[in-house]
Structures are given as C-alpha cells and as structure tokens.
Design brief:
The protein is globular and about 70 Å long. The chain is built from nine helices and 24 strands. Strand 11 (about 165-170) and strand 12 (about 175-180) form a beta hairpin. It is an alpha+beta fold and about 450 residues long. Strands 1, 2, 3, 4, 5, 6, 7, 8, 9, 10 and 13 form an eleven-stranded mixed beta sheet that branches. It has two domains: about 5-210, no CATH class; about 230-405, no CATH class. It has helices spanning about 115-125, 135-155, 205-215, 270-280, 290-300, 320-330, 365-375, 410-415, 420-430; strands spanning about 5-15, 20-30, 35-45, 45-50, 55-60, 65-70, 75-80, 90-95, 100-105, 105-115, 165-170, 175-180, 190, 220-225, 225, 230-235, 310-315, 335-345, 350-355, 360-365, 385-390, 390-400, 405, 435.
C-alpha cells in the first residue's frame, strides 16, 4: 500500500491531429529552452511538431514535455468531454502541473501530470457544484481518492499482463463486453466520465472543495488492508448494483447491493415480475428527489439538463430501434421484433438482453454495452422494462449510470438530511473502514 501522495498522469485529449492552447506561465521544454504564450502542436511524420505564437518551430519529437518553471498553468483548446453521452461538448480548459504531448499513430495525446490531491480538488469541483453540502464533498473526496489510488495499485500489480481496454466474449448466440478503467496505456486515468470528470482549474476550485480535500487528505476506504475500488454513479435508482454484474466476475464485499434509504434491509428482486414492479414504482429513496434546490447544489449546469433520472421513459418506433441498433452494434438484426431481458442484477439493471430480429437473434451484455446499443448516446441505465405497443418499443427505466457504489444524488440528500461524510460512505460501502494513509 502507498505511504505518500502519488503524482498521476491524466489523459486530457486523445488522438487529435492538432492541439492548440496557451502556456499561461513559463515552462521548460528542453534543458535551456523556456517558453510561454500561444502554441500549436501538429502530428507530422510520426512526431509532435511544436510551433510558438508566430508559427516558429520550437521543437519536434515523439513526445514533448512541458515542465513548470513556477506554478505551471496552461490552457488547452476544444477539449472534448461527455464523450458519446447526451451532454457531449467542447470547451477551452485550464490546468496546472506538467504537460506532455505524445505522438500516436492516429494523433496527439495531451497528458497532464498532477498530484493526487490537486487532481481530486478539480474532480470534486467538476462532479459537484461549489454549493454542495460539505459532508457530501468530503464523502465524494474519500470515494474518488480511494478509486483512483486503488486503480493505480491495480495497474502496478497487473502491468505485465497486457490487458486490453475492453473485455469481449463472443459466441454464436451471445456477445458480452464490458469496459474497465485501469486499462489506459500511456496515462493513468482519462479526464472524462469514463474515469472521473476532470477539468483542471477551468472552473475556480471552490473554497468548499479545497476544505473537503484538506479535511480528508490521505483518507481512504480500506477493506482487508487494501484500498477499496470505490465506484460511484449519478443515481442508483433505489438500490445499488454489485461490482461483478457490471465489470469483472469478481465480487467485492464492500460493493454489494444497498438500498438507497435509511432502511438497511435489502430484499433481492427474484423474478422478472418483481423487477418490473420495482422499476415501474417510485419507491422511497434518497435519490428519489425532485428538489431543485438540492439538485442545483450538487449538479454542474450541464448535468442539470437531466431531470428525469430516477424514473424515465424512452420510446422508439420499430424502424428507429432497428436502425439504431444496427448503427451502434454493427450487426444487422433486420427488423427487431422483441427485446427480452435474460438476466438482471440486484438493482434491476439488465446484464443480458436478447435482441430478436427478422434476420438474427443475439444476447448482449453487460450493462454499458446494452446502454450503448439502445441509445444514440447512452441510455440512462440498463434498469428498464420493455413494452411493445403496435409499431413502437417503450423502455421504462430507473436510475442514471451503472449504479455501483456511491449514489451521488442519494449521498447529497443524505448530507442535506444531516448525515456525516463517514456515515454516507459507510452506508454505500458496507464492510469498509476509513483510514488515513498519508
């Protein structure tokens, strides 16, 4: 286990043919070369070619490292975030620390090297509003820190295995695929929702976020003397999902189904009928809230565009669905005739869905692949029931995200109700303890 604060590599931009920005302070790019101001980097003959503000070539190589002289603030233009989600957009973003531009066969990747605690201050500010309750910010800091360092420890442990960025199992009747977070090759973590949303110092780091980071510095969720792989999503929909139904078939005692309510008892959904009744109801739950004051406190402005996260409805015509699935999966099912849930997790999320078409039938999993295939971006979650109505499919669902671990909206409501950060994380991560490691 670590004993001091690590420095991490964050992939901010991946495989752009050209990257531009501005060095807001002085950086060293070679032993005796100090630069600042506007810059542009282009991939040429397999190298990164760096140009200064007057289009003067400054340096070229397989990678260029910008080392801060003092402070190290820089801006990158047109950073894409929310990739493939319904809130996808670009914006200029500002960061602190070192910058590394790396040539890849299909573009340039920009990497920010930053300390864990500085990274977390940005994550908390990016994931949560500056006005969020302090106990929520502290709970989120502990959760994010634990996941991040657990991922770093996992990379060290399995660094020689050559694990691909996705796991796929394919037979004639089934395709099962899941995506995990410890698989980036030249950096530790990406800056998007696939890992944790990181926007550097683009938005002012609030005093509340700084206070939450300082108050919890070096504090981790621990189980069996190992740092917990602590996951989180926007809304569990009433029950959290265990790790192994979403990613690897490896159960974790601290990532088990937990009711998002003060009632600690969990009654498993044993049948399709029970799952349907659950999803079509609106049970009492911390994350079952429409309180605009709470949501404005915990959701950044672009996340506030999503208001129907606890229970939602999506409708497709048969033709729309058939065309969509063909486009997203690359498989021609013909005219889709049925969507049949084959297997569900404890929260009601479908982990295997049989798609029946006029040309072929195939079962797909896990939850993220199902969400990818059934939406132009991503379906809110895979916890849904299917209704067939004349020439339409109606999906009625619940929750926002994979549902594993901390429920962000549920945790926010708990904080508003007076729960402490320790009570919040121990509610969602059973069997875990808190320990200050550095």
């Amino acid at each position: 286990m670590i004993t001091s604060e690590p420095v991490i590599k964050v992939g901010v931009i991946e495989r752009y043919p050209e990257i531009s920005g501005e060095l807001l302070q002085k950086f060293k790019i070679a032993e005796d070369v100090i630069v600042s101001g506007p810059f542009r980097a282009v991939l040429k003959d397999g190298d990164v070619v760096l140009y200064g503000g007057k289009e003067i070539e400054l340096l070229r190589g397989n990678q260029i490292v910008f080392t801060p002289v003092n402070g190290g603030a820089f801006m990158l233009h047109d950073v894409l975030f929310g990739i493939n989600f319904h809130w996808e957009r670009k914006e200029h973003q500002t960061f602190q620390g070192a910058l590394r531009l790396v040539a890849r066969p299909d573009g340039i990747t920009a990497i920010n090297e930053v300390s864990v605690e500085e990274y977390l201050a940005s994550v908390i500010s990016s994931e949560m509003s500056a006005s969020a309750p302090m106990e929520l910010l502290k709970a989120h800091a502990i959760t994010s820190r634990s996941w991040l360092v657990a991922m770093l420890e996992m990379k060290k442990k399995f660094s020689t295995l050559g694990i691909p960025s996705q796991r796929t199992s394919r037979t004639e009747t089934e395709l099962v695929r899941y995506y995990d977070r410890e698989d980036h090759d030249i950096f530790d973590v990406c800056a998007d929702d696939h890992c944790q949303r990181y926007q550097g110092i683009t938005k002012d780091i609030s005093n509340a976020a700084k206070e939450a980071i300082t108050a919890t510095r070096g504090v981790f969720l621990i189980h069996n003397n190992e740092i917990c792989d602590a996951r989180f999503s926007k809304s569990c929909g009433g029950i959290s999902e265990p790790f192994h139904t979403t990613w690897a078939e490896t159960p974790f005692a601290y990532l088990q189904p937990v009711p998002c309510s003060a009632d600690h008892a969990y009654l498993p959904l044993k049948s399709e009928e029970e799952a349907s009744q659950w999803i079509l109801s609106k049970p009492e739950a911390f994350c079952n809230t429409t309180d605009g004051n709470i949501l404005r406190q915990i959701l950044p402005s672009f996340d506030q565009e999503t208001t129907d996260f606890f229970r939602w409805t999506v409708r497709y015509s048969v033709q729309e669905l058939s065309d969509l699935v063909k486009k997203k999966s690359g498989i021609d099912f013909g005219t889709i005739t049925q969507l049949v849930p084959v297997k569900r997790g404890p929260s009601g999320r479908i982990t295997r869905l049989r798609i029946e078409g006029s040309k072929q039938t195939l079962t797909v999993g896990k939850e993220l692949e199902i969400r990818r295939w059934l939406s132009a971006s991503h379906l809110y979650s895979s916890a849904f029931v299917v209704e067939k109505e004349h020439d339409s499919f109606i999906l009625r669902g619940g929750g926002w995200g994979h549902g594993v671990g901390l429920c962000q909206i549920g945790a926010a409501v708990m904080a508003v109700k007076g729960f402490s950060s320790e009570q919040i994380v121990k509610h969602y991560f059973r069997e875990a303890e808190l320990r200050k490691v550095y």
